[in-house]
Write a structure and sequence with these properties.
This protein has a five-stranded antiparallel beta sheet, with no helix packed on it. The protein has a five-stranded antiparallel beta sheet with strand order 2-3-26-25-24, with no helix packed on it. The chain is built from no helices and 26 strands. With 308 residues, the protein is mainly beta.
């Protein structure tokens, strides 16, 4: 689901588009839920835990042992964080509730060492980024005052990147990085309009990729240098980029035109999934699968597709 406060994102640069719908006990759940199909491009796409929908915003653990997501509960009045343990391509998954405390909790991301979970939540009235222990205890806000959302761990776990609204213009977002140990925050971008999506880290721990309007931007967090890649459809919005484990590909959503891949360093782009609702991608550590959420069968759910 897209973070608030914006009511969605631009379908074309500068144009408002409708928003995506939002998004302990232990149970066993079937991974595929009986739903396996081929996309128009021929890739096998498999539903993850179809019995728990609506579910959103998947992220693989760094060792591939689990997938994290959030599930709408109480008719959308709250959202709990879940962990699906096991191989998402296997017969069964063990689904564990991490945090279900009556607040709206979104975008769970496990730290590289497996001990912490970063997420965003409205528990203090205004959405912010929080960190908890893996079992959902010791919750603390780490993003400071103001609106913040969509955390992303650096490969070594020392930093968190997230988007933050400008104090004087809530509809303008920029990307910040938190030093987890010291609590110091550093601004990475200074956009005066629009809403960046990302940032997704490269394996070198220096660069991030994010989207802004109709461009993908690869930014060196140390030098400040950047490379820009325009939309394959002129003026069309790009969203939710995710860098592959080897750093050679970026998967992203082209608004209402499915999932696309950016090949690096060449910069060529190609569509890999026709589903116009697919977004919020996460690569498996082996680079052979990508999880995403979608309404491809009429209800928001998490799916996993094969990658070449």
């Amino acid at each position: 689901m897209p973070p608030e406060p914006a009511a969605g994102s631009a379908g074309t640069a500068g144009e408002a588009a409708p928003p995506t719908d939002p998004a302990g006990s232990e149970t066993s759940a079937t991974s595929a839920g009986g739903e396996v199909e081929a996309d128009h491009e021929g890739r096998v796409v498999q539903a993850l835990d179809a019995g728990r929908r609506p579910i959103f915003s998947p992220s693989f653990a760094f060792d591939g042992s689990a997938v994290f997501f959030h599930q709408d509960t109480a008719g959308g009045g709250s959202a709990g964080l879940r962990e699906a343990r096991g191989d998402p391509s296997g017969e069964m998954l063990h689904v564990v509730s991490l945090l279900d405390d009556g607040w709206r909790n979104y975008h769970p991301r496990l730290s590289p060492d497996g001990t912490l979970v970063a997420f965003d939540s409205d528990r203090d009235g205004l959405r912010g980024v929080y960190v908890s222990a893996r079992d959902g205890t010791n919750v603390r806000r780490v993003s400071g005052p103001g609106y913040a959302a969509v955390p992303s761990w650096s490969p070594d776990g020392s930093r968190l990147a997230f988007i933050r609204a400008e104090p004087t213009s809530a509809g303008v977002w920029n990307i910040w990085v938190l030093n987890v140990r010291s609590g110091d925050m550093t601004r990475l971008t200074s956009h005066s309009f629009g809403q960046p999506w990302g940032a997704s880290w490269f394996p070198d721990g220096r660069r991030v990729c994010y989207s802004h309007e109709d461009r993908l931007i690869v930014l060196d967090t140390t030098s400040g240098s950047s490379s820009m890649y325009p939309s394959p459809r002129k003026g069309r919005l790009l969203r939710t980029p995710a860098v592959s484990p080897d750093g050679r590909k970026v998967i992203f959503q082209l608004y209402r035109d499915g999932a696309w891949l950016l090949d690096l360093p060449g910069g060529s782009m190609r569509r890999v999934l026709a589903d116009p609702t697919a977004e919020e991608f996460s690569w498996a550590p082996d680079g052979r699968r990508v999880a995403f959420h979608s309404r491809r069968d009429g209800q928001w759910g998490v799916w996993v597709m094969a990658q070449e």
